[in-house]
């Protein structure tokens, strides 16, 4: 009778114990992943902000994830979202657009409307509108980045007797000496110093990146690149005033000597514009607000041995209203988060008054709220501002620039069009082409690609089930092709047992091949008929990608031509070098194993490491190659090479810029290719050592000399090895990527735009996975045809059997 009573007591006790743990379980903090791309200089501040947030919100823990490379940041976030492992909160600039358009980010409008602590009207209006898509907010602004900040050396202004800029100067298409310090170009001219030979010893102006100057001039002239920044349909850069502006900036860069040319930055100067400013080789540096904190650290205060400096804004054009380039950054919430409310609380802190004050007081960035920018001690200088943050004195110029901000955030489908424009703009900046001709060509190519991109947006969805059926059919066809010949054979029990054992041994390999090789190949084949970015559902294009590559995409033919020329030069050159080296290393002399190892080692080195080494070798001023050709004083003429290369120099008397000149860049990479001939040498050396000695003895008896032995014995018996090296060399040269990616980026003027580099840019920079898949299959067919053709014409190959 008592038994049920004790059972109930035991159950109640267990329930009571479990209930006592409920508060502990309930108190388990929510974990949020927060991904950023800040460098080491901002990490400490970010971690401190997170620490303060966690103290105020003990129910939330932030896991900080850092992707140091900005170039890889968007690609990795896209890959994480595609794999459904994206973080909860991300840090974005204009790069938020691809995510917002694909529905990867949550709309913040509902959070903003329901939260009385957040007033979007408190933020800079241009910043909010610049990062608003179709009336919806996806980011809460936390940082301002201005592109048109002019840093000036006050000591140089004093030496020239020029008053400091007061924000009232302007610019025109000519120097206006009558306006003196009110004319920007007159000031730049006066601050420039040249020696008796006319060589510039101090520049009046230098820009941080290539388009700073022309971009600032276009914005100050109220000139736009497209008809609609967020939904461009027409490129309007070919209007006469824009062409005139581009031509004027080209002449300023290449003819006046007042400012370093883009070529000089990568060659003779070997320094960035910011470094030139800190070295007092530039009077006015055109940079961004990011350099304010940098210069505070790198330039000591005058009383500690530094020089006095301040900031002003890029001048207006004549009497037109001011306008400035720039943007900002903010935090967004990924739609896949499981804790949207907690993520919003984190955004509210980081982008709210407390978080922005921490950023401003540390001097890291200008707050995104005007009231905080003007608050003494936060961004504006106040009584509590430490001495190192009291420079620049005119810090509030950033507030004026932010209120005149023009943000250009084009959609990703415009990226390819912009690449064509950038190529011609680079040519104009280097003085290779006139602005009228370059802009006309760039706009024509860019508009064609933009029209094609707009057409793709209206395509039908990809027939997924048809794709699955095709994939199954391909796999079935492969299985039938492999196993059909064995299907009719009768096997005894022992043979069946051996077959089962064999399949067990190779089973893991078969699974791996199907999943990791055959599967991706089939997927790539299907994607080549679609418009796909691997995030959104693909659209059906049929043969559209293949048609576009052959008929509409000029970069396709350029990349194919560059790759073919590289192969035509590099493969025979590498084969000849490998053969000569193998013959030398086949001699029976003392220490030959050591020499074989020395020549083989470079082929084992990382391609990335080799690219960095050769980039130093090809440096036009300090590189080893030019030291041989021009001598240490730059006036040598080794074997007459300097005279021979003179027509290819950027300017008379200048050393050849191997990687910066479109006429020499590809050949420089061919020269670099000889670095790795040790791998081919080993193959040919093995072939040489496999030739029986009796053939040489017989040739000696017949009276053959060394040359006849090489021609009649060595070469015929070495042809299998030569044939193998020839085939693998062609296949490898058509897949060249790392050298150009690291050393030239495909430039200059697409001179090193290899096929694989173009494919990579389309796949991972433009997110055109369908088009990139089509390019991959075109390359597969090209290599297959070339390989079959070589086998067809291989009658010259001598097999001993």
Briefly note the structural class of the backbone: alpha/beta
Secondary structure: number of strands: 17
How many helix segments? Answer: 34
In the predicted model, the low-confidence regions spanning at least 5 consecutive residues are none
Strand content range: 5-15%
* Rg calc: 33 Å
Largest sheet: 6 strands, mixed
Helix content: 40-55%
Write down the overall geometry: globular
End-to-end distance: 98 Å
Mean pLDDT: 87
Written description of the protein model:
The protein has 801 residues and is of the alpha/beta class. 54% of the residues lie in helices and 9% in strands. It is built from 34 helices and 17 strands. The strands form 5 sheets. Strands 1, 2, 3, 6, 14 and 15 form a 6-stranded mixed β-sheet that branches.
Any descriptors?
9% strand; six-stranded mixed beta sheet; globular; 801 residues
Topology at a glance:
Blueprint: H1 3-26, E1 30-36, H2 40-56, E2 60-66, H3 70-82, E3 89-92, H4 96-101, H5 109-114, H6 125-130, E4 132-133, E5 136-137, E6 140-146, E7 149-153, H7 154-160, E8 170-171, H8 184-191, E9 193-194, E10 200-207, H9 212-220, H10 240-255, H11 262-266, H12 273-278, E11 282-287, H13 290-298, E12 309-313, E13 316-317, E14 324-333, H14 340-350, H15 353-361, H16 370-373, H17 397-402, E15 405-406, H18 415-429, H19 435-456, H20 464-487, H21 493-527, E16 530-531, E17 539-540, H22 544-552, H23 554-585, H24 592-600, H25 607-617, H26 624-630, H27 641-645, H28 665-673, H29 677-689, H30 693-701, H31 706-733, H32 738-743, H33 755-765, H34 769-792
Parallel strand pairs: 1-2, 1-3, 8-13, 10-11, 14-15
Antiparallel strand pairs: 3-14, 4-5, 6-14, 7-11, 7-12, 9-10, 16-17
């Amino acid at each position: 009778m008592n038994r049920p009573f004790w059972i109930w007591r035991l159950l109640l006790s267990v329930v009571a114990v479990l209930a006592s743990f409920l508060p502990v379980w309930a108190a388990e903090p929510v974990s949020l992943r927060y991904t950023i791309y800040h460098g080491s200089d901002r990490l400490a501040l970010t971690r401190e902000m997170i620490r303060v947030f966690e103290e105020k919100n003990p129910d939330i823990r932030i896991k900080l994830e850092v992707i140091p490379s900005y170039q890889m940041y968007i690609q990795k976030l896209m890959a994480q979202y595609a794999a459904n492992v994206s973080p909860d909160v991300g840090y974005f600039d204009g790069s938020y657009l691809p995510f917002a358009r694909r529905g990867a980010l949550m709309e913040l409008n509902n959070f903003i409307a329901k939260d009385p602590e957040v007033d979007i009207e408190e933020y800079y209006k241009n910043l909010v509108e610049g990062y608003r898509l179709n009336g919806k907010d996806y980011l809460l602004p936390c940082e301002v980045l201005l592109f048109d900040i002019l840093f000036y050396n006050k000591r140089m202004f004093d030496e020239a007797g020029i008053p400091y800029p007061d924000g009232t100067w302007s610019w025109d298409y000519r120097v206006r000496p009558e306006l003196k310090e009110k004319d920007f170009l007159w000031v730049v001219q006066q601050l420039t110093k040249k020696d008796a030979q006319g060589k510039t010893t101090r520049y009046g102006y230098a820009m941080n990146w290539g388009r700073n100057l022309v971009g600032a001039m276009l914005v100050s002239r109220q000139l736009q690149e497209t008809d609609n920044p967020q939904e461009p349909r027409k490129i309007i850069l070919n209007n006469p005033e824009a062409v005139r502006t581009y031509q004027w900036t080209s002449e300023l860069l290449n003819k006046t000597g007042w400012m370093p040319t883009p070529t000089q930055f990568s060659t003779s100067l070997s320094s960035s514009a910011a470094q030139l400013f800190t070295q007092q080789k530039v009077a006015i540096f055109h940079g961004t607000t990011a350099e304010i904190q940098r210069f505070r650290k790198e330039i000591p205060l005058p009383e500690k041995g530094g020089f006095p400096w301040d900031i002003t804004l890029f001048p207006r054009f004549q009497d037109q209203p001011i306008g400035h380039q720039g943007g900002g950054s903010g935090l967004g919430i990924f739609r896949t988060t499981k804790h949207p409310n907690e993520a919003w609380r984190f955004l509210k802190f980081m982008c709210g008054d407390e978080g922005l004050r921490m950023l401003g007081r540390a001097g890291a960035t200008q707050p995104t709220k005007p009231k905080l920018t003007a608050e003494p001690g936060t961004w504006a200088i106040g009584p509590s501002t430490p001495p190192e943050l009291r420079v620049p004195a005119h810090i509030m110029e950033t507030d004026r620039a932010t209120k005149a901000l023009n943000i250009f955030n084009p959609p990703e489908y415009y990226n390819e069009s912009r690449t064509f424009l950038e190529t011609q703009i680079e040519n104009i900046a280097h003085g290779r082409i006139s602005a009228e001709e370059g802009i006309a060509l760039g706009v024509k190519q860019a508009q064609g690609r933009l029209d094609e991109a707009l057409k793709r947006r209206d395509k039908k969805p990809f027939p997924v089930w048809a794709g699955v059926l095709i994939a199954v059919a391909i796999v079935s066809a492969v299985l039938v092709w492999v196993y059909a010949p064995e299907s009719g054979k009768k096997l005894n029990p022992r043979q069946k047992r051996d077959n089962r054992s064999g399949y067990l041994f190779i089973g893991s390999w078969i699974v791996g091949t199907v999943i990791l090789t055959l599967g991706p190949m089939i997927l790539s084949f299907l994607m080549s008929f679609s418009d796909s970015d691997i995030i959104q559902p693909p659209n059906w294009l049929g043969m559209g990608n293949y048609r576009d590559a052959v008929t509409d995409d000029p970069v396709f033919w350029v990349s194919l031509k560059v790759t073919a020329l590289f192969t035509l030069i590099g493969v025979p050159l590498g084969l000849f070098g490998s053969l000569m080296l193998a013959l030398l290393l086949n001699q029976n002399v003392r220490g030959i194993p050591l020499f074989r190892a020395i020549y083989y080692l470079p082929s084992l080195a990382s391609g990335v490491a080799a690219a960095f080494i050769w980039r130093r070798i090809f440096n036009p001023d300090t590189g080893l190659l030019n030291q041989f050709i021009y001598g240490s004083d730059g006036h040598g003429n080794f074997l007459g090479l300097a005279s021979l290369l003179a027509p290819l120099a950027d300017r008379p008397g200048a050393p050849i810029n191997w990687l910066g000149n479109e006429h020499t860049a590809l050949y420089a990479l061919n020269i670099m290719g000889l670095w790795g001939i040790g791998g081919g040498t080993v193959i040919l050396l093995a072939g040489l050592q496999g030739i029986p000695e009796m053939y040489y003895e017989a040739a000696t008896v017949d009276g053959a000399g060394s040359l006849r032995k090489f021609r009649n014995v060595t070469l015929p018996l070495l042809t299998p090895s030569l044939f193998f090296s020839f085939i693998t060399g062609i296949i490898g040269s058509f897949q060249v990527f790392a050298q150009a990616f690291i050393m030239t980026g495909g430039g200059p003027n697409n001179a090193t735009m290899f096929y694989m580099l173009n494919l990579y840019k389309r796949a991972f920079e433009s997110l055109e996975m369908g088009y990139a898949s089509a390019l991959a299959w075109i390359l597969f067919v090209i290599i297959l045809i070339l390989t079959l053709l070589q086998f067809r014409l291989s009658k010259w190959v001598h097999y001993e059997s």
